[in-house]
């Protein structure tokens, strides 16, 4: 059975032929860890977890390498650290923000039924690789220094813009040249920028500084997957400029015709028919949703829409997803611990560019007593175990998670960050957790039913 995937680079559905069937390689852009991940961030996590599972069934678990990075150096992180921990040295404040946020992300996506990627590299652990890559681009004439920055020269790459199908001349026409007068071309982008004394930085041949966003993924994908690999994934919003610039850096550094053979992008998510935004009051984090819905319901709801199509996230659809899963597991009963496998109709649907609506139709066809075992094994392969307990039930409370939130709230109070302290208190209340600040400086809690 052949696997066909839609390639954003060619705008066609292609048969997937790995460069090495013994080592199928996939890279997906992960979160920038400065705040709770929202439900839109969950979409690529779930989509590419499903692809990871499919590739492992087709090629064997030991023959698939999945890399999803963590961006832990970014100006947004710096700003959050200064806001939340104004009394701490910046490096310590940054570490507090990134460690807690990354750990929260890991806990949240695990509850969505996602497997751990093979490697989860952090940007700060790969600075030497970024410096090496920038040096290669300078040596090959694809980068230059100006005004304390190292910049990529888009004019040095004749087919720059191929992924996004953006014409470079059109980009130049709308650029504000006066703002970036040190650039040879307004579309040139930063590879390395100098850091002030109160900003995080690393020593480099171009001075103490920090990397641009795009170079991070080029360095990490190269380190763990090589100069050319099989699949690169992410959200539709990353096509330009992030993925376009990744391609430019990697191809120009190594002289390769492509960076990844297939580029895959999931569509946008809106909430109750509107764009998700804090101003509209419909900004939903994964963590907030997990306080009210089982993670498996969130996962199933996400998979009901084909990954390339826009999805409308609604209460009604969540209720429908829960009822459907309850029906499946009423038939299946308790799943055993052994590895699941996709039934043929579901495997055929997923092999056609992850056609999850068709795969779910296949699950409905299996929802009968005579196919009980086949349905159960397929649900397991899709990442479902039947854990549909109410998040507010006593057994569903994650004590470790609650204690972590309380510790984060105490840290915020020590830093006199009352807004963050109140936000965490409200989050706990939404989970059905009542807290009490004791006289000895500790905080006790209980579940309110």
Features:
449 residues; alpha/beta; four-stranded parallel beta sheet; four-stranded antiparallel beta sheet; 15 helices; 42% helix; 15% strand; globular
What does this structure look like?
There is one protein chain. The chain is 42% helix and 15% strand. The strands form five sheets. A four-stranded parallel β-sheet has the order 4-3-9-10, sandwiched between helices. It has 449 residues and is of the alpha/beta class. Residues 173-178 have low confidence and may be disordered. The chain starts with a strand and ends with a strand. Strand 5 (143-146) and strand 6 form a beta hairpin. The chain is globular.
Concise overview:
This protein is α/β, with parallel strands linked by helices. 42% of the residues lie in helices and 15% in strands. It has helices at residues 39-59, 75-84, 90-111, 127-139, 168-173, 213-225, 239-254, 286-290, 295-303, 315-332, 344-350, 356-366, 372-381, 399-414, 418-430, and strands spanning 4-7, 12-15, 24-28, 64-68, 143-146, 149-152, 189-194, 209-211, 229-235, 260-266, 269-271, 274-275, 311-313, 433-437, 443-447.
